[in-house]
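Q: I'm writing a short methods note and want an example of a predicted protein-small molecule complex. Could you take the sequence and the SMILES for flavin-adenine dinucleotide and return the bound structure as tokens? Please keep the output block clean; save any remarks for afterwards.
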Amino acid sequence: MSYDLIVIGTGPGGYVCAIRASQLGMKVAVLEKRATHGGTCLNVGCIPSKALLHASERYAEAANGFADMGITVNPTLDLAAMLAFKDQGVKGNVDGVEFLLKKNKIDTFQGTGRIVAPGKVEITGANGDKQTLDTKTVVIATGSNSVELPGMPIDEKRIVSSTGALSLQEVPGRLLVIGAGYIGLELGSVWERLGAEVTMVEMLDRIAPGLDGEVARQFQRILAKQGMIFKLGTKVKSVATDGKICTVTLEPAAGGAPETLEVDVVLVAIGRVPNTEGLGLAEIGVKTDNRGRIVVDKRFETSAPGVYAIGDVIDGPMLAHKAEEEGIAVAEILAGQAGHVNYDVIPSVIYTAPEVASVGKTEEELKEASIAYAVGKFPFTANARAKVNRITDGFVKVLADKETDRVLGVPIRGADAGTMIAEAAVLMEFGGSAEDLARICHAHPTLNEAVKEAARAAEHRAIHM
Ligand SMILES: Cc1cc2nc3c(=O)[nH]c(=O)nc-3n(C[C@H](O)[C@H](O)[C@H](O)COP(=O)(O)OP(=O)(O)OC[C@H]3O[C@@H](n4cnc5c(N)ncnc54)[C@H](O)[C@@H]3O)c2cc1C
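A: Understood, no commentary inside the block.
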């Protein structure tokens, strides 16, 4: 069988690319080594983590937040049922991808793919059987894996990666999370809400690197109020476990006296590395950079003609929607269209309570680039809907070019920030100004009115403040 396109990996980058290519008339096959489609995101990433964040947030709300509304409940936790709720959500999503691949007449192969020569992809099935497919082009969408700390092997029971942390069979009394990025903060929040004492250890002197500094500081204060313990500027020297207890040795990143902690579970969430193992890249001349990412040009083509790469395996934020955009862009490029991705407008969201979302530049980045900017800020304490629902934590910040008024960045900390950020992304994609945003009629009473008011505040004319 000969194909126009073979996509290796059916995560959000790969399956979206395959569907778009099929829509554009190509004969497409996908290879996936997992038993189910959807990649990290649907199986062990975005989707299961959001299911647990949703369920644990409801649990915490029922325990602490309902009484004010006149609802008295005394919730009890059935962790096995909560994990089954998560698994059902995952199944619904991965089944959905299988349906979409079928509907788009894409051939699916289960097994590990390797590019053995230009236009030839070998698949090794679970039983070791091999077959080779012919294709005009290949898109590598093999994603990423969690980073392990040297000398601290992941057993997914006591020392876990994000995958193990999504399936702990009991709530740990004490959970230590190494790495205060979004994965560590989200999964730390889940177990903290379910009753664990959570300690976040971070080498940097701040949480959520890449997020607007002011938002990150306030975000940390809120999480600390919820019960999280932060040890910033701190390095983990060693973790040892006897299968029951983990003994963790920490020391200040800048040097100093070590301290020892005993915890029940350690979650290692220090980042992810591109997954290129066994693809045969060196043999066919595909270059990687010093961080193991596949190097591509503006058309997502690698140094081997006819071989393309997208998603977590190349440079850029490791986010599902970034991988999807690249999947669509490369399919359109292969069909002779002008596919492209605007890397200046890729929103990112941390799905804690409250959520934190941002798009575009941070204040720190604007200062670094010597771009003069105006700041408009509006707190949810002054938003009618937030006040009546008692979700007043947080604010919207609009950063606009001082000269042109074009919106350059919007961070939001507050309930539903992840949904609200979309309007900032739409505006920025169209090159809109703070005045444009301020003049758009927003429904009342909605949390989004705070976005409009922040845009008005950029020109010192907020109404409700
Ligand atoms: C806990 C967690 C939470 C996350 N939450 C979010 C979130 O809320 N929002 C967000 O945007 N992102 C989130 N992410 C990141 C997101 O999951 C990734 O950015 C996204 O999955 C990358 O998509 P991808 O298609 O590049 O790769 P992946 O989703 O990693 O898919 C790659 C696929 O390729 C397969 N594969 C690899 N090698 C081969 C081979 N040789 N042959 C055949 N198949 C192969 C793998 O089995 C895998 O299924 C989260 C990640 C984690 C771990």
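A: Remarks, as requested: Residues 8-14, 31-34, 39-41, 45-46, 49, 112-113, 141-144, 162, 183, 275, 278-279, 311-312, 318-321, 323, 351 surround flavin-adenine dinucleotide (CB under 6 Å). DSSP finds 14 helices and 22 strands in the chain.
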